[in-house]
UniProtKB/TrEMBL annotation:
Domain Peptidoglycan binding-like, first and last residues per copy: 49-86
Protein name per the record: Peptidoglycan-binding protein
Origin: domain of life: Bacteria
Pfam family, one: PG_binding_1
Residue intervals passing through the bilayer: none
InterPro entries registered for this protein in UniProt: Peptidoglycan-bd-like (IPR002477), PGBD-like_sf (IPR036365), PGBDSf (IPR036366)
Amino acid sequence: MKKTNYLKELSLSTAVVKRGLANKKADVEKIQSWLCLQERQHRGIGTMTGIDGDYGTATEVAVKNYQKFLGLPADGIVTASLFTKLTSNLKNSFEGAAIKANLRDTISEVAHNHLKGFPFELVIKQQTNCGPWVRSYMGGNEGSDWLWCMGFVQAVLDQATSLHGRNFTEMMPISYSCDTVGTHGIQKNVLIRNERIRINPALAKKGDVLLVRKSQNDWIHTAIIVDVVGDTFITIEGNTNNDGSSNGDGVYKRVRNFRKSYLDVFSLNNWLV
């Protein structure tokens, strides 16, 4: 795998972090981020707190609440073992998918496995597109300017192709830009335009990459196609929301009508021959 930045999110620089120690700010921010993400997944457990790098009383209480949620002694101390529990969804998403009989099915499996991990972004220091999931998808980058939909798609492709002993960069360049991938698709004659798909929906297949077109050579969002049903693509996509935004807050499974929107498809067919 080329996208291994997620590994930096799975560990702390010290064995123990607690109130009263000279903790590293980066370690505390990681812990606070994961506490907030736990509350997003398990509403009401009481772990949402500020992300400021200060292990004060609020963070200590949030840690104790997480320990109570797990049925552990609530001492407010983050050990390596507890941090492993905090970050288990990320590890499982990047390492837990099983290889399938063919690459298209493996891509779908990997995308679904990420979906199960509840990837969300966080707002940190008034910046959207932040947090451990975003950094994992975006090579350590985060912040309002770092729209992460393509980072998510290429992380899925990276994992899936690696399971089959292949390299996704043979298919497309590493990029966080939908325009770069769309232009590459045109150059390699693998970008199927929406107008052709409306005539023959069978051209699009599971595992292909959807590109939401704004204008002829301008794409603003991307997703993994996991099924084609009637006039719709079933997708798994990052940095979106219920409105289908290209700057949402998480990874979701969506239904998109290709007869009502300009949805181009980066096809894997030539690469799989």
